[in-house]
Amino acid sequence: MPGQMDEETIDRLKSALWFSVGQIVDEQSLDLNVNATPQFIGALTEMVWAQIENVSKDLESFAKHAGRKTVTTDDVMLLARRNDGLADVLGDFVEQRAKGKAAKQR
Questions:
Q1: Fewer CB under 10 Å: which end of the chain, C or N?
Q2: For the stretch 23-38, what's the b/e string if a residue is b when 16 or more beta carbons lie within 10 angstroms of its beta carbon?
Q3: Tell me, what's the pLDDT at 2?
Q4: Which 8-state DSSP code applies to residue 69?
Q5: What is the H or E stretch that residue 23 is in?
Q6: H/E element holding 67?
């Protein structure tokens, strides 16, 4: 993978992810009146990290296949093609962003 990260950087990113996942789980636990163990938060964090790794590899592969070194919106939309709900949300986001850019250029 281009731009391999050193172990310290990976550890810092995983720690930041663990913190963020923990905050979300704590908030949802309070809203739902349930408890979440630290082991659950750790396991969820590892699952999210693995998903991030898979997504990043797929996006890099799409860009490389297209002869680019940079991931584009088209790559992200291609990745989301099998998840209709996600594709709709991302499509709406891209559309809104394009409208915002067009309004700024006027």
A1: C
A2: eebeeeeeeeeeeeee
A3: 46
A4: S
A5: helix 7-32
A6: none
